[in-house]
Every structure is written in C-alpha cells, then in structure tokens.
Structure to design on (489 residues):
C-alpha cells in the first residue's frame, strides 16, 4: 500500500495542476489579506472564495485523475496487490497532495495574518472540505464507467452542494415559514458539508448575530464544545461514507 | 492447479461465460480458441480476478480466489492490449513492477528484455511507443517474475516475425520447465509446436477441451488450423 501511494503522489506532483492550484490559492490569500485593512475582514472574503474554489478544484481534479489512472489501475489489478490498497492509495495520494496544496496556499497566509481560533478553524474546515470532495469524486468516478458522464456528475454534485442545496433550503423555509424550523435547520446543515463548514466559521467569527434567530439556535448548538465536536464529526462522516461506498463498488468492478 | 466450477458471467444481455467448468494442470500448455467475442478474454480475466463472475467458483492451488490477491504473485499476465501509465518510461514501469512484486529470494528473468533489445528504449515514455514495442514490454513483464502460471492473451499480435519467434522460443523454454501456460491466439499455425491441449469455446460455452493429439486423430488432420476450421464449419 505504501509503495502504491508513493507512485500516486509522485505522479500527482509531476502533474503541474496541483502546483498551479497552490500558487493560485497563495496569490488569492495574500492579495485578500493585503487589500483589506482589517485581517478579520480579509478572512471573511477568503472564506467565501475557499468555500467555492476548494470543493470545485478538489472534485474536478480528483475525478479526472481517477479516469486518467485507468491504465495504472488496470496494470495493478492483475498484480499481487489488494484492490482495496489500490483504491485507498489513490484516495490517499489525492487527499494528501490537495491538502498540502491547500495548506501551503491558504493555510500559511492565514497563520501569518490571522493565527487565532477562527483562522485555525478555517484551515481545518478547508482541509476537511478538500478531503470530503476527493472522497465524493471517487464515488462519482467509481459509479460511472464513462468519463464524460463521471465528470458531468462531479460538476452537478459540486453545483448541488454549493448552490442548489441552499436554494432548496431557502425554498423550504419560505414554504413553511409559519412553523418553527430553527432546529430543523441545524439538522439540514449536516446534509451539506459546505454549509457545515461555513456555519462553523461564521460562528467562530462572532458574526452569528447577522444570521438572526436561526443563528442564535446555531450558536446554542455549535457554539459550545460539544457542538464543535459534533460538527467536525459530521465532516468526518462526509469523508468516510462516500469513500466506503466507492471502495465496495471498486471491489466488485470488472476491469 | 486452476479449477473453475460452473462460472457464469453476463454483461447486460450478453452471456460472456456460460456455465464453464474446467481444470488446468501444471505442465500443460493450453490454447484457448474460439471466434471473436466468445469469452476467452473474460475467462482469463476471471482467473486473474479482474472480472468477478456472477456465479461459480475458481480455485487456484485448491484455494478459492474470491477476494484473494496473493495468488497473483504466481501468475504472469500479458494482456491483449497492454495499457500503461502514459507518462512513465519503460524503465519506470519495470522498476515499479519490481518494486511492487519484489521478493528478495526471487530470481528475476530478464531474458526477454535482452532478446528484444529493450535496453536501448528504456527511457522512452509509454505514449511514444509503437503497438509492437508495447507488446514487447507486456511480454517482458509477464515473464519477469518467473511465475508458475503464464497467461498470454494474443501474445504475438503486432510483433514482427523475428520478435514473435523469440517469444515463441521463450514460451517453449518455460513450458519445458513444467509451467502452466494459457495462450489465446488467432494465428493457429504458430500454435502447433507450442501447445499440448486445446480449449475451444463458442458463445461463452465450452465446446471441447482435449489433448492436441486427440483432436488430430478425431479430425484426421495434421495441422491445428485445418482441424479447427473443420470444427468451425461443421
């Protein structure tokens, strides 16, 4: 498993996209922090960019990478290697290299300009989002044989998590505005890792007042340590479940 | 050595393998024959665990291969169309395979690398290679680890006459060491002096599996190609 992981990581590093992604993140983070007079404001602007960019790059790059590794996978499957270790190495390689890219590109500037609890939560959330979307990409690539369909599915999933899900929740809130839905909202946010990350950081930044009554409920739920632990657990579940399903799928796949 | 019991595999509506039961033993050199799309490659891939049969079981040295992986260290496989990571060089690919399959007491068999003169091409990337050179790389990898079982899917397709002679000589050499060799090929004339048994499939079904000599007496022919044509036409 270690050996295969090594080959995957070397291959990803040779592929220059991850390097470009790192520089892009670095450029964005540094310019955001330098443009805003207040580093807290800079962090907020960076948050919005990270919540869009990180899932997008992670899911698209990983999906395409999995399809382009089909030769590598085919070669290894006929060798004395466990299928599980091939798939987990691909996951590990992608997750490790994209996380490293995020850490260098966004993590280090955050630590330089705003190294408090909020900054660290933001780095953790970014790392989680990276790994979650690698895991979702593996699922998308694992269930579709066709490359175009797989990449299409990934883009749709990204759209769903970044835009459509919020629209649906808003629609739901308006339809049922006569009912007390605040607690249901807490539950809903667990269904979308991006929302979960956003809520957590906004609460850390102490601007939950902007989020109205629901914000107060969130604060009550997420604000204390149990809440934080629970939401990180939620993010963790988002890593494990897609990975587990795709692993089972790959175990039975015909190559 | 390899025993398959009632294996069936369907792809959508197509029955690629239909209730195949067979046993292949050490020292045999078996030709898997049949028209295009009759399920030869699916059978090979099932033995390698690359395709998971819908039902039935396959045993390797008495142990079911279901979800096993270690048995593949005793198998060398040469695919019909070798697909390799495009941006690796030949040397990279060979090094990687050595790294993954390495066993300190293992004797590496690099005869084919020398006889095919691959040394000069070692630093070429896989995507720049011609089909024949790719085929040579596949052959080298199949023989490299001195496996007990060799599975060769159309080994000489795309090779020039000299290289294909070299490969045939190598196959005969390994056969004499008492290895189990499975070959599929459509060039029947070159199989005459290689094989000991004939396994003939049609539409996913096993039509017959017998010794080459038996087949010859049954059909009254001297050449495998003539004998098979006689059967296919009949």
């Amino acid at each position: 498993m270690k050996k295969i992981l090594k080959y995957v990581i070397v291959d990803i590093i040779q592929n220059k996209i991850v390097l470009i992604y790192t520089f892009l993140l670095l450029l964005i983070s540094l310019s955001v922090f330098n443009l805003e007079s207040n580093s807290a404001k800079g962090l907020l602007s960076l948050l919005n960019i990270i919540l869009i960019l990180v899932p997008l790059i992670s899911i698209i790059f990983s999906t395409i990478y999995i399809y382009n590794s089909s030769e590598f996978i085919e070669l290894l499957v006929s060798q004395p290697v466990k299928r599980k270790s091939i798939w987990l190495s691909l996951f590990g390689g992608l997750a490790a290299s994209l996380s490293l890219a995020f850490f260098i590109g966004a993590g280090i500037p955050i630590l330089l300009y705003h190294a408090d609890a909020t900054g660290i939560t933001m780095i953790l959330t970014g790392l989680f989002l990276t790994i979650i979307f690698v895991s979702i990409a593996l699922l998308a690539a694992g269930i579709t044989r066709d490359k175009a369909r797989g990449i299409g599915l990934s883009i749709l999933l990204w759209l769903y998590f970044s835009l459509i899900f919020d629209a649906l929740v808003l629609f739901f809130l308006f339809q049922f505005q006569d009912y007390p839905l605040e607690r249901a909202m807490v539950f809903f946010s667990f269904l979308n890792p991006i929302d979960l990350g956003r809520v957590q950081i906004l609460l850390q930044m102490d601007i939950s007042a902007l989020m109205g009554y629901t914000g107060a409920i969130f604060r009550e739920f997420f604000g204390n340590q149990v809440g934080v632990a629970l939401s990180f657990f939620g993010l963790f579940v988002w890593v494990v479940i897609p990975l587990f399903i795709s692993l089972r799928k790959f175990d039975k796949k015909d190559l | 050595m390899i025993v398959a019991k009632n294996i069936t595999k369907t792809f959508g509506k197509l029955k690629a393998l239909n209730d195949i039961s067979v046993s292949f033993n050490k020292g045999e050199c078996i030709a898997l024959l049949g028209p295009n799309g009759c399920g030869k490659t699916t059978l090979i891939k099932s033995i390698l665990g690359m395709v998971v049969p819908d039902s039935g079981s396959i045993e390797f040295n008495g142990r079911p291969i279901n979800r096993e992986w270690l048995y593949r260290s005793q198998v060398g496989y040469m695919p019909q169309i070798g697909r390799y990571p495009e941006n690796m060089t030949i040397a990279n690919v060979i090094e990687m395979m050595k790294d993954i399959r390495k066993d300190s007491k293992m004797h590496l068999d690099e005869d084919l690398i020398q006889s095919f003169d691959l040394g000069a091409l070692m630093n070429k990337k896989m995507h720049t290679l011609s089909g024949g050179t790719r085929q040579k790389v596949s052959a080298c990898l199949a023989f490299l680890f001195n496996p007990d079982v060799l599975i060769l899917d159309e080994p000489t397709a795309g090779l020039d006459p000299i290289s294909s002679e070299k490969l045939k000589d190598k196959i005969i050499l390994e056969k004499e060491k008492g290895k189990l060799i499975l070959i599929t090929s459509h060039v029947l004339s070159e199989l005459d002096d290689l094989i000991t048994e004939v396994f003939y499939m049609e539409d996913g079904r096993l039509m017959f599996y017998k010794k080459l000599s038996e087949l010859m007496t049954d059909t009254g022919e001297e050449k495998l190609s003539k004998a098979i044509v006689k059967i296919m036409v009949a």
